[in-house]
């Protein structure tokens, strides 16, 4: 009787465990970050193309069909994936973005990251089609600097600000303003950005982003993240920690400020819960790793998609890991020696 019961409960546990995607490092995958196009109308100096390893070919208009995108999301949702982030390039280049949104299964949250240029006209239709919120890139409030950072023509910054207002009006909230910090260019504008954010009364969040050092010529723009973190902490009336990447959120004079600090940050990677999908339909286990992608374009059935999702998840590993200290290394060596000796003794017997 007892045996039967314990067998039953372990099966139930197995069933439960099968319903989630967990990588070999115990990190649950609860979100997908899907690039729906590699086209963009800006050329930001820090752009990492969502980790697409296309430096040789450049963005060439790779795009998946709405059917493939929704097929992958539907399958992933069966395994507990509940948050979808659409990105690009610039996702609003897709005229059928609303169709993509409309064919998604029920989810906890659907968001998009956009440069905001085309947002004014689309905010309402995107909301109606099922988009919950947007992140808008806004590194500076100075038109000249905006042009320098993004390569945009004069007048673009004004369009982006109109786009932010329309997103707030349409209820695509909270709108997050993505500010990539660049030493000597915009790192003195954090307070101005907080002042810009405050009147939206919680409907807009300021998201400070550490520059990803993807090219040697960018290293001179890297800010001192630890010093910034310390000063944010000192100024905050409240500090919260998000589950995703263990990102910190600071409440400063009524403004919510989130700090995205991925570089050399093992805690960030240890709490990474998203699998990426590139514009050309490849499942990408990590933003910074380019040789372990899984091609999802050939998948014809839900079973095939499931198999590929499981394969991609099995290839996930944290990019930054804690450095093992000498003492720990010594301990590990001693343990390995002990195990080897015990094994030898056992075979001698
Ligand atoms: N290394 C690394 N950087 C990331 C990751 N996710 C986001 N980032 C960085 O954060 C930037 C902004 O991300 P967004 O596209 O706005 O989305 P998000 O802030 O990650 O997501 P939400 O807070 O849920 O809206 C990206 O361009 C990256 O520079 C990640 O998983 N790994
Ligand atoms: S808007 Fe985004 S995708 Fe376009 S160039 Fe800038 S960072 Fe890259
Ligand atoms: S493992 Fe780290 S670097 Fe890779 S995607 Fe996750 S958070 Fe980014």
TrEMBL record:
Cofactor(s) needed for function: [4Fe-4S] cluster
GO biological process: Mo-molybdopterin cofactor biosynthetic process
Binding positions (GTP): 33, 85, 113, 176, 274-276
Binding site for [4Fe-4S] cluster 2: 269, 272, 286
Residues covered by the Radical SAM core domain: 24-256
Enzyme Commission code: 4.1.99.22
Pathway: Cofactor biosynthesis; molybdopterin biosynthesis
Entry's cofactor comment: Binds 2 [4Fe-4S] clusters. Binds 1 [4Fe-4S] cluster coordinated with 3 cysteines and an exchangeable S-adenosyl-L-methionine and 1 [4Fe-4S] cluster coordinated with 3 cysteines and the GTP-derived substrate.
Positions contributing to [4Fe-4S] cluster 1 binding: 40, 44, 47
Organism domain of life: Archaea
Pfam families from the UniProt entry: Mob_synth_C, Radical_SAM
InterPro entries for the chain: Aldolase_TIM, Elp3/MiaA/NifB-like_rSAM, MoaA-like, MoaA_arc, MoaA_NifB_PqqE_Fe-S-bd_CS, MoaA_twitch, MoCo_biosynth_MoaA/MoaC, rSAM
SUPFAM superfamilies: Radical SAM enzymes
Reactions the enzyme catalyzes: GTP + AH2 + S-adenosyl-L-methionine = (8S)-3',8-cyclo-7,8-dihydroguanosine 5'-triphosphate + 5'-deoxyadenosine + L-methionine + A + H(+)
Residues where S-adenosyl-L-methionine binds: 46, 89, 137
UniProt keyword annotations, A-Z: 4Fe-4S, GTP-binding, Iron, Iron-sulfur, Lyase, Metal-binding, Molybdenum cofactor biosynthesis, Nucleotide-binding, S-adenosyl-L-methionine
Molecular function terms, GO-annotated: 4 iron, 4 sulfur cluster binding; cyclic pyranopterin monophosphate synthase activity; GTP 3',8'-cyclase activity; GTP binding; metal ion binding; S-adenosyl-L-methionine binding
Uppermost EC category: lyase
Function, as annotated: Catalyzes the cyclization of GTP to (8S)-3',8-cyclo-7,8-dihydroguanosine 5'-triphosphate.
PANTHER family the UniProt entry points to: MOLYBDENUM COFACTOR BIOSYNTHESIS PROTEIN 1, MOLYBDOPTERIN COFACTOR SYNTHESIS PROTEIN A
Annotated family: Belongs to the radical SAM superfamily. MoaA family.
Descriptive protein name: Probable GTP 3',8-cyclase
Organism: Methanosarcina horonobensis HB-1 = JCM 15518
């Amino acid at each position: 009787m007892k045996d039967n019961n314990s067998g039953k409960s372990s099966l139930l546990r197995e069933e439960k465990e099968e319903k989630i995607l967990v990588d070999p490092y115990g990190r649950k995958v609860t979100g997908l970050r899907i690039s729906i196009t590699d086209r963009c109308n800006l050329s930001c100096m820090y752009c990492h193309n969502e980790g697409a390893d296309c430096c040789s070919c450049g963005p060439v208009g790779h795009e998946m069909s709405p059917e493939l995108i929704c097929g992958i999301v539907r399958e992933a949702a069966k395994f507990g994936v509940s948050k979808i982030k659409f990105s690009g390039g610039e996702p609003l280049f897709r005229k059928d973005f609303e169709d993509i949104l409309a064919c998604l299964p029920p989810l906890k949250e659907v968001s998009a990251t956009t440069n905001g240029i085309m947002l004014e006209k689309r905010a309402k239709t995107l909301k109606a089609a099922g988009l919950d919120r947007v992140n808008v890139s806004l590194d500076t409030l100075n038109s000249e600097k905006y042009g320098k950072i993004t390569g945009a023509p004069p007048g673009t910054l004004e369009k982006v600000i109109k786009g932010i207002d329309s997103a707030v009006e349409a209820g695509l909230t909270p709108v997050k303003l993505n500010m990539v910090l660049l030493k000597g260019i915009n790192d003195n504008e954090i307070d101005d950005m907080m002042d810009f954010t405050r009147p939206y009364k919680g409907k807009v969040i300021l998201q400070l982003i550490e520059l990803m050092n993807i090219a040697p010529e960018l290293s001179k723009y890297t800010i001192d993240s630890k010093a910034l973190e310390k000063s944010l902490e000192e100024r905050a009336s409240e500090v919260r920690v998000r589950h995703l990447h263990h990102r910190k959120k600071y409440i400063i004079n009524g403004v919510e400020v989130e700090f995205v600090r991925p570089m050399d940050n093992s805690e960030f990677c240890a709490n990474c819960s998203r699998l990426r999908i590139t514009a050309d339909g490849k499942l990408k286990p990590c933003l910074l790793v380019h040789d372990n992608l899984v091609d999802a374009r050939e998948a014809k059935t839900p079973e095939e998609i499931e198999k590929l999702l499981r394969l991609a998840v099995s290839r996930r590993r944290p990019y930054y890991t804690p450095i093992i200290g000498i003492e720990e290394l010594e301990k590990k060596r001693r343990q390995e020696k002990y195990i080897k000796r015990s094994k030898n003794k056992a075979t001698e017997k």
